Amino acid sequence: MSDQEHKKNGHLVIIGGHEDRKREMEILTRFVELSGGADANIVVITAASTIADEMWSMYDDAFGNLGVEARSHLEVTTRQQANSEEFVRQVDAATGIFMTGGDQKRLLALIGGSALDAAMHVALKVRGATIGGTSAGASAMSGHMLAQGRAEILPEKGSVSLGAGLGFLHRVVIDQHFSERQRLSRLLSVVAQNPYLQGIGIDEDTALVVELGRGIEVLGQGAVTIVDGRTMITNVADIKDRDTPELIDVRLHLLPAGSSYQLPSGPTAPGQGLPPPLLDFLENVTKRNPIS
Questions:
Q1: What distance in Å separates the CA atoms of residue 214 and residue 10, rounded to the nearest whole number?
Q2: 160: closest CA among 173, 146, 171?
Q3: For the segment 251-268, what is each residue's pLDDT rounded down to a tens digit?
């Protein structure tokens, strides 16, 4: 990819949590590469965490060990800060913006709808910057955010609630620590009641990388699970809360680390062999990204 092409396409690096920060650091290395390598200007947002200094210290060490000199901590503790010219100016100068783990509800309460939020959208979609998020920072990236819910053995109606996310992706909901915490039933619960949304489950030390307008890749040690219920048949509307719904014809895609898919281009490539459901997912996460 040429430098010119890179500048036109922003990237999302969506991490399932517990990424390697000390050894090979495959995911963080890719985040740094997409942010400009040694010339990257990386801002770390710790708003999701109540132990911001510890979080910053961890990522300060990791990005420093990867050769990034221009790195800074954006410690957002109030909405006044999230609307301040100083914080917006730091995001405007950044080529990489990284959101740590913690609590996604706290993250949205502090920065959702703020000037900082708007600056991140401009950075991604206009300037071609890279936005990364791990754990809570990953869940917050979609327009519909998984706010809370149990991970039971079976799906349950009413067991999961959604909130408004940052909206870097639309018509999806993201769950993290996916295989390790056995969260398939939780994602099925979401999709059962919200078939408009495609569910994305990301394992620990695993990342879904989305290049706007181009394609996706999966990095790390696990897999990305996609749950698509748009063609399903279900009785969820007719059962009581906490009952298990009947779910028929739910589609599940598993993309292990190393998977990489690009959108087809040109009139001679109507699908390049991609199954239509996967092509539909690619178009959804790479193209449906309005600036507002």
A1: 10
A2: 146
A3: 999 999 999 999 887 654
